[in-house]
Design goal:
Layout lengths: L1 H9 L2 H10 L16 E14 L20 E9 L4 E10 L11 E11 L4 E9 L22 H4 L8 E12 L3 E16 L2 E17 L2 E16 H7 L3 H4 L3 H8 L2 E18 L2 E11 L7 E12 L4 E14 L2 H12 L6 H15 L3 E15 L2 E12 L13 E13 L1
Antiparallel strand pairs: 1-2, 1-16, 2-3, 3-4, 4-5, 5-6, 6-7, 7-8, 8-9, 9-10, 10-11, 11-12, 12-13, 13-14, 14-15, 15-16
Length: 421
Amino acid sequence: MILFFRYWQGAGLPLRLIVLLAGFCMPGVSVAVNSEEALQLSGFASFGMGKSSRDDMPFLNHTENWSFRSDTIVGGQAQYKFSNRWSSTIQVVARGFTFDENDKFDPVLEWLFTSYQLSAETRIRVGRMRTPLYLFSDSLEVGYAYPWVRPPVDIYSYLRSPLANFDGMDFSTNVDLGEADLDVQVFAGVGGGTYIDFDIELCPAFGVNVVSRWDNLTLRYGYTAADTDAASESLTAFAANYDSLASLYPIFRDIRDSHETKGELFEYHSTGFQWDYESWTVIGEAYLTNGPGKDFSSDSHGGYVSFSKQIQDFAPYIVFGYYKNEFSDEITSLIEASKVLVPVGFNSDLDELREANLVIVDNFNEKGRSYTVGVRYDFHQNMDFKIEVEYLDSNAQLTRTTESNSKEDTVLLSMVIDVVF
């Protein structure tokens, strides 16, 4: 299984297409021909604008000047049903702002998978799919699907780039429990990408998600484990400065090598709920990440709770969120231990290197809180307008491009028009 996923990850898009379409040539597949209902097309878009209270703490692409790119996105989706059991889905998205190397509004393939319906309750999919980490993972790009301008960044920011999708397969089934029903999903695959200057590769990743629905209450729990390679481009380049000392003192080789992680297990737990009571909706989610506790790794946790009330076509809302990341102390411990072999004052260049290294490593220890007030107005069928003010009391780099670790306040004003069609 692991070899298959590594092969799938290394395969180019044409080969993946061949693999996906090959399923339609299997014996026993009844293909629907000349059916007007076979092809289903849909689309979505968000047109946003916003600004931050300060230029030195940019949020996404927002500064003191108005930005029209950060929350602007256009996407389209097509599904073709070959038979009552077989179908294929593709989704392409163009974003105004990304954390990776994609230029603004470059079309990106988000979904490309084939589905086989074993029964009315059970389904298998193979291809590129959304990584199922949260309540709104499948509708992450569809602003009309949730009450806020954007999903709370305290836990959703990582989904915007390296962990947004995976290439692999999943198995899902629905269990009727009488007054409640249970959705169970098991998935496995590979994924990864770039987040600011972080490179992350998951190979393989596997997980399980359980969603229970009872009356107006939805509960969710997810677990994901991944064999992970992770590094920061700026940090690994900095660590190369220890190369000249690595042959003389093994501890400096250890310091250099500890600036990245290769093949280490990371575990990810997530929980969530949504409760709809009369005109009120309460949504909450939380997560916990456990790293290997060494090298370039961290333990982090975060969450949010949101309250909204429907008043005719308006839905005012408030959101409280938090986030904390504790970086592994192995690099710091190794640097402090090296001072026994090469004492401070013996080599001024090395002293400067170690102290600068300690500062950079400390920048990965992050924490923050967020408070959001906004309103959604459904002014037309399948269209809404949202405006919100978000206060960030944080040194976290979740959505910022600054490298400062000082604790700063930022206020963000955002507006967006969402549409589905």
